Amino acid sequence: MARITAGVASSHIPAIGAALDNDKTGEPYWQPVFAGFEWVKRWEVEEKPDVVILVYNDHASAFDANLIPTFAIACGERFRPADEGWGPRPVPEVEGHPDLAWHIAQSCILDEFDMTIINELDVDHGLTVPLSVMFGQPAAWPAKVIPLAVNVVTYPPPSGNRCWRLGEAIVKAVASFREDLNVQIWGTGGMSHQLQGMRAGLINKAWDQRFLDDLTADPERLRTMPHIEYLREAGSEGIELVMWLIMRGALGAEPEELHRFYHVPASNTAVGHIVLRPAEATPAAA
User: Residue 273 catalytic?
Assistant: First the structure.
């Protein structure tokens, strides 16, 4: 059967993609950012995931104020990089896994999650930047990807507990899929940052570090954290971190922390990254 063998979380800052695409990774400003992802790039080569369930938020590329799904799963075969106003990123198209995606959609809906199902979707930096920092710049992405879009742009976003429970529903769905697959689940977005208003440029290092700690040390605190704390402590865009809880909810009790990276700044944003292994998990056969 298919198994979730790891959870990965990372910021999805668009400037990171621009630095990669414009050969700026060696510049002094960007060197420490990309150095922090060298470990995970080597690790992913060893892990060889077949499928990545990639939790992200769209930035008005596929959705706008006319259509705001809380949870949307993409079940198509291929997804093109979106044109976010300066042309699509020069990265490979994303290849989906329709059979697993439809299976997850059916299982989650029967588990009383009202998922929006999408077959055609252009994916923006929220999805492609994490792929780039984990997999580098290949001619084709080494894993199939199931995009899972979450509304964290227009209020109300889902609660941390609802996101956690969706993670639990996803791992249940994956475990009931009969094909032998090595599946990872990624949560993206954050960490603390605010892009507008009087607090533009806000970064809260101490709060970010505690969030990283509590993914393993005190996940119950994160499940019940109210939206207002994200806004007050992590800025208006810090609410993206609820998407990490979908990843965390899929890993069960007491996962092992394999790697962590945190850096400030990257385009006025705190960069966070963590890799977790579910208890007693081993990669499925390739």
Answer: no
